[in-house]
């Protein structure tokens, strides 16, 4: 997204925070880990743009 | 006879240097500083009826108020045309010249022209609003710059069609104008390509967009007491798309209540986005707007709270300027609602 500074590579364009190949529990766990990564990014000091792998 | 008003700073106005930079705007009917150069070029076609002189610090520290004061001083003189500066590479002066010209154009509805060096910070602030003539970085070329500013100003006043920035010597305002070409697009583009291959200069007819560099938001210090909001450009909306957000090239966004929700139920939502296969998101909207896990993290105390609304728009073939406006409105709204962090999900 134009101008974003804290970027988390997610799953798929058509399903950024999910993976339909997994079962419901595993899919939710995956989503939770991506969201926690985003929360960690919000708490990370930055000078420029950063991709959080 | 054309009535011309000028704007200049304390230095060019002959009042003083940095020691006089706090001077509020004052008006004189005497021709001072650059006024003599303007008068020489204007000859007897026009009359310099007034000049406003203002200290650079005063203006730069109170841009809105100073602009209003300048307007109140010059409006009684019923000017037809305004020239500010030229400011060359003087930053505060450039900002003042830009603000005064914009005010003249939008509020007094008269043509206004200024001049700046390419690195003047006033350039990027005002280039879209007004005509800014290209200058060198110092006042040695005053006579030549004033001549070019005057020519452009008089053509604007006469209602002439103004040509391309490079031909006319002003900075591009980012406008597109239709032109009739005598060769087809195919011929022109092959010609450009040949120039490129030969290492010769060529000018593209389509400018690549120049994106802003956005400074990262400040770090979130205390996530356990922070209110976090979810925002998406993936087009998720309640069934029926109540805000009528466009399916592409959006100009609107929506704000939807999730205060009582532990998860997003697919029965309640649809996807309004023509740019991706939305089946997986329609099956489970949490795949785009993760309300389910955010609610868990809220209960566990990992975050202070999940914001009661999520915001949504459609990020497809959008106009960056329009989206900038939406982004600004969304951010202002989130701020007013006490949100301190945002997770933005994109498709």
**Biggest sheet: strand arrangement of chain B:** 2-3-1-4-5-6
Number of strands of chain A: 2
Helix content of chain B: 25-40%
Poorly predicted spans of chain A: none
The residue fraction in helices of chain A comes out at: 25-40%
Shape of chain A: elongated
Question: What structural class should be given to the helix and strand makeup of chain A?
Answer: mainly alpha
Shape of chain B: globular
Using CB atoms under 8 Å apart, which protein chain pair has the greatest interface? A-B, 32 and 42 residues
Order of helices and strands of chain A: EHE
Strand content of chain A: 5-15%
The count of helical stretches of chain B stands at: 11
Q: What is the straight-line distance between the termini of chain A?
A: 16 Å
Count, helices of chain A:
1
* Structural class category of chain B: alpha/beta
For the largest beta-sheet of chain A, the strand count, sense and barrel status come to: 2 strands, parallel
| Rg of chain B, nearest Å | 27 Å
Low-confidence stretches of chain B: none
Number of strands of chain B: 13
Q: How many whole angstroms does the radius of gyration of chain A measure? A: 12 Å
Order of helices and strands of chain B: EEHEHHEHEHEHHHEEEEHHEEHE
């Amino acid at each position: 997204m134009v101008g974003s500074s804290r970027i988390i590579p997610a799953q798929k364009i058509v399903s950024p925070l999910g993976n339909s190949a997994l079962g419901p529990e595993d899919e939710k766990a995956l989503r939770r880990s991506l969201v926690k990564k985003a929360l960690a990014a919000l708490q990370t000091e930055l000078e420029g743009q950063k991709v959080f792998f | 006879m054309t009535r011309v008003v000028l704007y200049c700073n304390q230095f060019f106005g002959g009042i003083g240097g940095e020691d006089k930079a706090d001077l509020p705007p004052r008006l004189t009917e005497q021709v001072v500083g650059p006024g003599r150069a303007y008068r020489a070029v204007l000859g007897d076609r026009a009359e310099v009826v007034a000049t406003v002189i203002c200290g650079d610090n005063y203006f730069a520290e109170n841009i809105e108020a100073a602009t209003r004061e300048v307007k109140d001083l010059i409006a009684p003189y019923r000017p037809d045309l305004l020239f500010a500066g030229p400011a060359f590479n003087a930053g505060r002066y450039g900002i003042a010249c830009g603000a005064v010209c914009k005010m003249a154009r939008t509020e007094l509805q008269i043509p206004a022209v200024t001049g700046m060096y390419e690195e003047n910070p006033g350039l990027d602030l005002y280039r879209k609003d007004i005509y800014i003539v290209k200058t060198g970085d110092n006042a040695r070329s005053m006579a030549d710059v004033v001549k070019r500013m005057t020519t452009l100003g008089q053509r604007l006043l006469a209602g002439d069609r103004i040509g391309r920035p490079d031909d006319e010597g002003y900075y591009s305002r980012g406008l597109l104008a239709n032109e009739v070409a005598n060769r087809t697009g195919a011929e022109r583009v092959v010609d450009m390509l040949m120039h490129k291959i030969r290492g010769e200069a060529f000018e593209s007819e389509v400018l690549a967009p120049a994106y802003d560099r956005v400074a990262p938001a400040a770090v979130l210090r205390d996530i356990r007491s922070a209110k976090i909001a979810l925002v998406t450009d993936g087009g998720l909306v309640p069934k029926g798309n109540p805000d009528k957000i466009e399916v592409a090239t959006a100009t609107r966004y929506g704000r939807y209540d999730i205060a009582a929700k532990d998860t997003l139920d697919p029965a309640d939502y649809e996807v309004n986005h023509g740019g991706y296969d939305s089946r997986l998101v329609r099956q489970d909207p949490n795949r785009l707007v993760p309300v389910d896990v955010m609610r868990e993290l809220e209960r566990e105390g990992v975050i202070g709270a999940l914001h009661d609304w999520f915001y949504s728009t459609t990020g497809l073939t959008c106009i960056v300027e329009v989206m900038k406006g939406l982004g600004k409105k969304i951010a202002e709204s989130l701020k007013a609602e006490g949100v301190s962090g945002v997770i933005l999900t994109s498709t």
